[in-house]
Design a protein that fits this description.
Distance between the termini: 9 Å
Radius of gyration: 17 Å
Number of strands: 11
Structural class: alpha/beta
Strand order of the largest sheet: 2-1-3-4-11-10-9-6-7
Largest sheet: 9 strands, mixed
Oligomer: single chain
Strand content: 15-25%
Shape: globular
């Protein structure tokens, strides 16, 4: 049975995001791995229906400083070779881009996005993004586009907000997986970067969150359904 989705988490937060909610409701088994805490990654097998690489505070280019990233890059490479549906979010998208030779890191502008920002489709977006939409953001690094990738979305401050490689690999700079409760937890954390240029005030974050969270959730669940589908019987 191809019914397992391996999710890589880069922090010890509660597992209450929309990726987990979707996988449970769609009948997948969530295989949560935390390589930063010493949990190993194996090899793709006949049970693997997809993988999601979530965000985190690490820099995608510092595998020397964060040795566990080497195992994650090995996993990314194996999944690419096996044509496994893959979604990278924020750091996860930067990791896919970095593994494929694209630049990652802080932009020269010094800007960040922390709050809820409008993301616009490019001409190549097609059904991925039908119109400008507002999404959760929490980043001050960015990714370049890997060779052969389609540029799908941009924002006013960050040109690269989403890419697609083939039909089964996506990288998102934004965080549609984050719920209202999850973002409030981020906003109150000791790492929250309210003072960086580009960050919204807490009042503005709350106003935009209340306006756009429901639509963000609806978009994301539809996107995940298109990427992962339903569990399938191998050979059936």
């Amino acid at each position: 049975m191809r019914d397992r989705v391996l999710v890589i988490q880069h922090h010890p937060d509660p597992v209450d995001d929309r990726v987990s909610t979707f996988l449970t409701s769609a009948g997948f088994r969530t295989d949560l791995r935390r390589p930063f805490a010493g949990e190993a990654l194996d090899e793709p097998d006949e049970t693997l229906a997809g993988t999601v690489i979530l965000g985190g505070a690490h820099f995608a280019g510092e595998s020397g400083r964060y040795p566990f990233l080497r195992d994650e890059y090995r996993w990314i490479d194996a999944c690419l070779k096996a044509d496994v549906p893959m979604l990278g979010i924020c750091l996860g998208a930067q990791q896919i881009a970095h593994h494929l030779g694209a630049p990652v890191g802080a932009p020269e502008s010094g800007l960040c996005e922390f709050g809820y920002y409008q993301v616009e489709p490019t001409g190549a977006a097609g059904g991925f993004l039908d119109r400008p939409r507002w999404f959760t953001q929490a980043h001050f690094h960015a990714f370049g586009l890997p060779a052969g990738a389609e540029h799908l979305a941009r924002s006013d401050m960050f040109e690269n907000q989403a890419f697609r490689l083939g039909e089964r690999v996506y990288g998102l700079q934004f965080h549609p997986e984050v719920t209202v409760e999850g973002f409030r937890r981020w906003r109150d954390s000791d790492w929250a970067f309210h003072d960086k240029p580009g960050a919204q005030t807490p009042d503005e974050q709350t106003r935009l969150m209340m306006l756009h969270d429901e639509a963000q959730a609806k978009w994301f669940y539809a996107f995940l359904g298109g990427l992962f589908g339903k569990p399938e019987v191998v050979g059936g």
